[in-house]
C-alpha cells in the first residue's frame, strides 16, 4: 500500500509545470514533457502527477525497464485524487497485480472513488474473480447510482451467474439513464426472452389460478397463520421475511402470478406435519467453482439428476408416490404428501431411515430434509421451504415440476391434480420395510442434552459445533471435513467424548462404528483450534456467529474445548514474537466484534420487519422514519417537522 514516506509540499508552480507538461504530451513533445516533469519532481518529490508523466515518457520511448522502475515509485507516494492514474499506467504495462494493489490502495483512502472501483471490478472480472468483481460494482452503485457502465457490467455478471431477475432490473436502470445504450438494450431483450420462457407455465394455464391456488393450499398442508415472502436486494442477497398473516388463496395466486414468492412453515400444531420434502442441492463451494465452467456445471446438473433417479427409485420400491420440482436455482425438491398429519418426529425419522438405505448424496451434492425440527414452540416458526410454481427471485426462473431427467412436465396443472397423498397404512408399511417396524432413530437433540450434559457449554457456546451436530440430525449426512472437526474436538475427551461422537456421527446415513473408532484413534495429539476450524469450514463460518471470546491460557490457543475447561490448551500453542501478539489480538477482537455486530444487525432487521407489518409499513419515532419496500428492504430517513 502507498505510504507517505515522502513529504508533500505542492505549490502552484508544480501544478503549473504538470499542466504545461500535459499540454506538451498531447502535442507529442516528449522532450518538453520530460523536462517539465523532471523539474516538478525536483521541486515536489511527492507529486504523483509529475512521476506519472515520467512513466508516460518512458512508455512513449519504449523504455520498458525504465518505465517499470518509475512505476514502482507509487509505493512511496501519498494517496491523492490523481492516484488512480498509477493503476491505468500499470494496466497499460500489463502489470495487473500492481494495478490491483494500486486501486486497492487508492480505495483504502478514497472509499467511493468511481474510477478505481470500476477499474478494480473489471480486473477481478478478467481474472474470473466474480464475487470480488460484483462486490466492487455493488459498492460503486451504492455511491454512484447513475454510473451506467457500472450498472451494465454488474447486470452482465448477474446474467452470467444465472441471476436473471436482478440482471433484468439493472439493464432497465441503465436504459432509464441512457435509452440508447446498445449493450443494455440487447441484454434486456435476451434476459427478458429467457425469463419469459422460464416463468411461463408450459401449458399456459394461468387462467386456472383460482383452482390451482385452492389445490395447492389443500395439498401443501402447513402452518396457516403465517407464511414467508422471499426478498432479494441489488447486491444479489436473498432471504425470507415472515408474514404474520393467514396463508390464503389470494396469497397463493400472487405466488403463481410471480408477484411474490411464498414459502411455508411445514410444522403446525406444535409437532405435526403432513408432507416431507427432500432438497437436493449442489454444495456452495462446488457451485462457486462451476459458475464459469459450463462443462463442470453440466456435470453437476447431471449429478443432481442421478440423485433424483436414485431417490425416486427408492420411494417407488416402498410404493410411495413422490413429485419432483426444479427448485428454480441449481437443485431440486422431492415432495412426499400424506393423507393425514403425523408427528414431525416420526416423519423426520422416516427421512433419516430412507437416507441410510438409499443415500448418501453424491460427493458434490447435499441433501436436506423438511421439516427440520421435531417440535416448534408457540413463539417459534421452524425452517421454511419455498412452494413450487413460483418464481425464484434470484434467478427469475419459475420452479416447475419436472421428470427424472430434469425436463419440465407439459401440464403443470395436471401434475398438481394427479398427486395422490400416501395413506396411513401404506406409509406404515414403508416404515416397516425400512427398519423392521419403526425406523431406527439415533439420539435426538434433547437426548444429547440429557446424555452429555457436561458438553452443553460447547454446544451452547460454539455456533459452529452446534451447527454440525444439528446438520447430522437434520440431513443424516456430514462430509469428511465436518466429521474431522468434530473428532478433533470431542476425540480429546476420552471415552465419554468418543461416545458423543458415535451418537452424532451415528445419525449419518453412511455411519460405520469401526471407521469412526479408527479415525478417533489416529487423532493429532492437540485439539483443533478455532483458526483451523474457520479454514476448514469457510462456508459454514460465514452463516453462523463464529465469534467466541476466550481468556487464553498461558501458551495456549483458542479452541471450542475452552468452553468446558479454560485451561485445556495450556502450553500447546506456538510461541510467537511478542511484538506481533498485540496486533494479532487487536485484529481478532475487531473481527469478532464485526461478526457480532452483523449478527445483531440481522436480528434487528428481522425485528423491524415484524414491527413494520403491524404498523402498515412505517415507523415514526420523532427523529427517525423507518420503512420497508415490497422486497422487505429497510430504509431509514429523518423526520422533518
How does this model look, in words?
This protein is an alpha+beta fold. It has 3 domains: 187 residues, Serine Threonine Protein Phosphatase 5, Tetratricopeptide repeat; 213 residues, Alpha-Beta Complex (DNA primase, PRIM domain); 131 residues, no CATH class. Helices cover 53% and strands 10% of the residues. The strands form 3 sheets. The protein has a 5-stranded antiparallel sheet with strand order 7-4-6-5-9. The chain has a 4-stranded antiparallel sheet with strand order 2-1-3-8. A hairpin with a 3-residue loop joins strand 10 and strand 11. The longest helix is centred in the C-terminal third of the chain and has 37 residues. The protein starts with 11 loop residues before the first helix and ends with a strand. The N terminus is likely disordered.
Structurally, the number of domains stands at: 3
Mean pLDDT figure:
83
Helix content: 40-55%
What kind of assembly state do the chains in view correspond to?
Answer: single chain
The CATH homologous superfamily of the largest domain is termed HP0184-like
CATH fold call of the largest domain: DNA primase, PRIM domain
Main beta-sheet strand count, sense and barrel state: 5 strands, antiparallel
Using the CA coordinates, give the radius of gyration. Answer: 30 Å
What is the molecular shape? globular
Q: For this structure, what is the CATH class of the largest domain?
A: Alpha Beta
Task: Give me the count of strands.
Answer: 12
